[in-house]
Amino acid sequence: MAYQKLTPRSENYSQWYNELVVKADLAEQSAVRGCMVIKPYGYAIWERIQAGLDARFKQKGVQNAYFPLLIPKSFLSREAEHVEGFAKECAVVTHHRLMNDPNGKGVVVDPNARLEEELIIRPTSETIIWSTYKNWISSYRDLPILCNQWCNVMRWEMRTRLFLRTAEFLWQEGHTAHATKEEAEDFAQQMLDVYADFVESVMAIPVLKGVKSPNERFAGALNTYCIEAMMQDGKALQAGTSHFLGQNFAKSFDVTYLTKENKPEYVWATSWGVSTRLMGALIMTHSDDNGLVLPPHLAPIQVAIVPIFKQQEQLDAILTKINPIADQLKALGIRVKVDTADNMTPGFKFAEYEMRGVPVRLAIGARDIENGTIEVARRDTLTKETLPIDGIVEHITALLEEIQANIFKKALDFRIANTRNCDSWEEFQTEIQKGGFLACHWDGTPETEEKIKELTKATIRCIPLDAPAEEGKCIYSGKPSHRRVIFAIAY
RNA sequence: CGGGAUUUAGUUCAGCCCGGUUAGAAUGCCUGCUUUGGGAGCAGGAGGUCGUGAGUUCGAAUCUCGCAAUCCCGACCA
């Protein structure tokens, strides 16, 4: 038994995470620092995230498009705040040709192939998109423009972790242009709702919907909406953002339209995105010391069926029982894998499907054939029971929904249990280190937030959209406050 | 950008202090037999420019110096 268990979460949470990502076959380190290879199983999960969101975007009238990877350097300096936010982490293309090394050692950059204007590998695409939208928009009849792109972006991070923070990552970025402020602001909120609905109902990750404080706001935005999730170690993770950009980019890139009254107006903008970071959120919300735990609505394989057999004849006999079950499940749209591989023992397969988070596992052998039974194991509770084959399809259909609901509830209960009010600065300083969300009063100034961050590493994760009005005193400055905001230590 | 560590088989590592036949183990892989209800067993087999460049030496995985890459912990950031 050379097989190694994961480091338990209680022992070293971040080591547990790193091992899980690799052992569940989701991703691995690449030859390039900070960049990851997403393996087929991990990518299958990402594809399901993509498919679910993409369908929801289209219901909102959003169309997909594609804008280039490379952005002229000059574009980035058009919006001052925006460039300040990203300048430190941009990769720059300076040359367009290689040549044989005159000293005979492979290839070198051809010094004569320097670009007239350097190109930036997109850290995000606002600038290239707005320089393009300028040409697309002339009349109120051209609005709104609702575009999204699925692509990669690059931010040269000092320190990276698979999925959570990589130098290159996959995401979608939606960019919309509207005639009025109200419409843009409303659209940004609608997209936040799309994210929250998807993340909660498909990924089973409970999220807080809120607004970012000025310090945490996207560079160049007037308002940043976000969904915040709580990981099992009590840290916060921003799972998605939607920005109301006002007219900042319209003004920087001179994007105007003519109103019905034939007056030129700047357009109003939004942008919104989620990234492969959602994979990190998924892992850290549900998984346990045995590996990944996937919500059935998202799992690439929802039901794995493991026949237990000695000879081919036995397998054939078992398959006559299994195949109809698999076919019925597939007909109901359930993703099933029948694992007939004979080079792995059943025990190995059990452990493997557990590590990969497959929600339901069925096992059936000679004993079951005699008894007309099948063993059903569920990943979320790690329990198994032997049930009659009759009615198994109905049982599984219901079980998948039960698992989906159960893991969402478990995550929600955890968040509730680890969210508390805090009204004393003394208490805050010790409580915040224990993890979880602290709902506190805040005087609304960036200075106070900055100071709190400096002293405790905690930031305001969001001002919840449903935060009730409540008079109180700022946890740090004692100045008056009208509602509680959520503080936490974040990824 | 600071601090620490690592670099030898596909993977995880031993060997280095104290230089010396053909560089080892486990696991994985291939072949055969036997097995299969929680990570099976036996036998055989393939697999290595010891990160890189110099130096010391009759001789370097091992000693010296340089360089690079990666990982972890901080600072910074989605």
Supply the CATH class of the largest domain: Alpha Beta
Measured between the Cα atoms of the first and last residue, the distance is 36 Å
CATH architecture of the largest domain, by name, is 2-Layer Sandwich
Envelope shape: globular
Q: Percent helix among the residues?
A: 25-40%
Overall structural class, as computed from helix and strand content, comes to alpha+beta
Radius of gyration using CA atoms only: 26 Å
Contiguous helical run count: 14
3D structure, described in words:
- With 491 residues, this protein is α+β, with helices and mostly antiparallel strands.
- It folds into 3 domains: 219 residues, BirA Bifunctional Protein, domain 2, CATH 3.30.930.10; 97 residues, Anticodon-binding domain (Rossmann fold, 3-Layer(aba) Sandwich); 70 residues, 2-Layer Sandwich (Translation Initiation Factor IF3).
- The strands form 7 sheets. An 11-stranded mixed β-sheet has the order 3-9-10-16-13-12-11-24-27-23-22, with helices on both faces. Strands 18-17-19-20-21 form a 5-stranded mixed β-sheet, sandwiched between helices.
- The protein is globular, with a radius of gyration of 26 Å.
- The two termini are 36 Å apart.
- The mean pLDDT is 93.
- The structure holds one RNA strand of 78 nucleotides.
